[in-house]
Amino acid sequence: KCAGTAVKDLAAQINRLPAGPRIIPHGHARKLADHPAEAEYFFSARHPVSRFVSAFSMRKRREQPRLYREWTAGERDAFLRFPEANELAESLFAPGPLGREAFAAMQSIGHMSFQHLRFKVRDIFGARPPLCVLRQEQLSHDVGHLLRLLGVDGEVSLPTDPASAHRSDSAQSPPLSEKAIANLTTWYAADIEYYRRSDAWMNEQVP
User: Fold this and answer.
1) Who contacts 41 (Cβ-Cβ below 8 Å, separation ≥6)?
2) pLDDT for res 161
3) Residues in the chain, pLDDT under 50
4) Lower CB count within 10 Å: N or C terminus of the chain?
5) How much is the pTM?
């Protein structure tokens, strides 16, 4: 839920240009260590709290309307027990069975994993900096910077249709309470620090 579908659509447009770079998209399981040391790369990022809400909404509706992926057994149990994202987030760290069920739900629902584990480099921005970080919150701005770095001047653009971009509409869901946000901030503490560093690095690249 970090604009991956929109970025892959953009990459496909760039790859169709008669001259220019070629971008190889990779799935969620790909880690930085899987790439050759000389390979250039970029990635997208999103604040973990909003990523949690988007992932919950997307998997709750089984990724419709763009796709249809049936719930796993774990997801079925999770959504039956916690029909709303706020309810799940508030139940994190609760004592007894409720907390255990919330912990299991967080492990079961797709796209809720810890993003920083895909890097496992002490300091990627010092040891192996990316070309760019595409922050979901300001995607158009960061994509413009990436296109300039790649020297792409053809007619390419991000998809605007919500279904094509695979965007979740979570406006109908109850907002997160202060307790829910506090729990998620604890749960995703390492990811939030990773996002903060990514954001700070990008602000240095693009004042």
Assistant:
1) 32, 35, 130, 131
2) 63
3) 165-166
4) C
5) 0.83
Q: Residue 165, Cβ neighbours under 10 Å: how many?
A: 17
Under 8 Å between Cβ of 194 and 113: no
pLDDT of residue 121: 66
CA distance 64 to 136: 20
Q: Does residue 98 contact residue 91 with C-beta atoms inside 8 Å?
A: yes
For helices 73-81 and 48-60, angle between their N-to-C axes, nearest 10 degrees: 100
Smallest CA-to-CA distance from 167 within 30, 4, 8 is with: 4
DSSP string, the chain: --SHHHHHHHHHHHHTSSSS-------TT--GGGS-TT---EEEE--HHHHHHHHHHHHHTTTTTT---PPPHHHHHHHHH--SHHHHHHHTT-STHHHHHHHHHHHHSTT-S-GGGGT--TTHHHHS--SEEEEGGGHHHHHHHHHHHHT--SS-----SHHHHT----TTSPPPPHHHHHHHHHHTHHHHHHHHHHHHHHHHH--
